Amino acid sequence: MRILIVNTSENEGGAAVAANRLMEALKNNGVKAKMLVAHKATDQVTVAELPYRWLQRWRFLWERLVIYLRLHLSRQNLFAIDIANAGADITSLPEFREADLIHLSWINQGMLSLKDIRRIVKSGKPVVWTMHDLWPATSICHYARQCSRFKTGCHHCRLLPGGGSANDLSRKVWNRKKAIYHNSNIGFVTCSRWLEGQAKQSGLMTGQRVCSIPNPIDTRVFAPAGDEQERREARRAAGLPETGRIILFVAQRTDDERKGVTYFIEAVNSLAAADPQWAADTSVALIGKNSDHLASELTLPTVALGTVRGDHAMAAVYRSADLFVLPSLEDNLPNTIMEALACGVPCVGFRVGGIPEMIDHRRNGYVANFRDTADLAEGIRWVLRDADTEALRDQARHKVMRCYSQQSVAAQYIELYNEMIAQKTYRI
Q1: Residue 425: per-residue pLDDT
Q2: Residues 37, 39, 45, CA angle at the centre, nearest 5°?
Q3: In 3D, which of 105, 198, 192, 196 has the Cα closest to residue 404?
Q4: Cα 15 from Cα 252, distance rounded (Å)
């Protein structure tokens, strides 16, 4: 079985990380898997790059320009919208011709246009499309938030000037997607049961196959420290305090509002103010772009690590931590929570998206009420002061081994691939 995974980036962003891990999981379970990306960043032989790299920059800029004009020259929502009006025709590439099945991942920002997706569907090759957000089931947005128009048909889009119209850009893109999906051999996969439930409500998904399979993780790389000596060595290598408690926060951009950084700051600072003795023995570690700016807003001693590259380096930081906090306001199945759990680190997050599927309340962490800073602070306090630390760590690791290991996830995808290939029909 030969699988081609298509993703815009090779290693930038959560979807790219998930696509890479899936490729490795499939290869480790006997599947010939390759990735096709817009920009190749490593020397990985099973990752291919689109030809004419400079064209990708123009595709990206063209889509942004069209959106910018539709927004009446406003930058607001410029990157909240994707219209897939520009992309590469991959059907003539050798990687495409050799594949038995095409696995689409995150393909926005100039990787594939809607026209290109139509070509893939009409090639006759079965298609699996992993949804890292809701975009395949909506028109132009990645997260519906409180909007329910995607359930019947997008129009009057809140992201467009004046709230759009009955026949606005969102309606036109909706109709194009609907025509592509009609009578197609696509199997849609969501990374969480929450997103599966959302997708199945979409008018675009009527009659489509939608199932949920989580992202995989290499539990040999992301593993707990063997003992306290190993934890201290990991802290020393990362430049973190060798003693005391460490709270970890990780985001691609630490100032990303969607990751709930404001709630994190308020919760941590309130705990520090309420218990100076606890604060004296507790510090914060930050990973992500702009982490030095965030550090200045925290009253606890804080180490801003910036961008940490490589799974082994990330795993070492997780092993250093006593708690991982991610109060996302919108999220599917965050890789960071999975990584922390795999390293035996209890997690705290809000009851939103796929997070409650990952954190088992008071078993491997704490699930706080949505947008409730006081409850978020209580979760942090409970994990670090009241809970059975060893029991939480054991349950964290157990959850990942049971649900997210390479073998478990690869087996589910292989079963889906076989079903899709068996029922493929050719539409030239």
Answers
A1: 46
A2: 65
A3: 192
A4: 12
For the segment 81-106, what is each residue's pLDDT rounded down to a tens digit? 999 999 999 999 999 999 999 999 99
φ and ψ at residue 106, rounded to 5 degrees? -90, 115
Q: Give how far Cα 204 sits from Cα of 140, 144, 151, 208, 345, Å.
A: 13, 14, 8, 8, 39
Encoded tokens for 411? 């087996």
Q: Cα 348 from chain centroid?
A: 17
pLDDT at 428 over 80: no
Specify the length of the chain in residues: 428
Q: Which residues, listed in sequence order, are joined to residue 349 by a DSSP beta bridge?
A: 326, 367
What is the C-alpha separation between 164 and 36, in angstroms, rounded? Answer: 35
Write the pLDDT tens digit of every residue in 183-239.
898 999 999 999 999 999 999 999 999 999 999 999 999 999 888 888 899 899 888
Q: Which of 112, 185, 201, 104 is nearest to 153 (CA)?
A: 201
Pairing label, strands 323-326, 245-253: parallel
Tokens of 381: 């306090």
Beta strands in 65-158 (DSSP E): 101-104, 127-131
pTM: 0.88
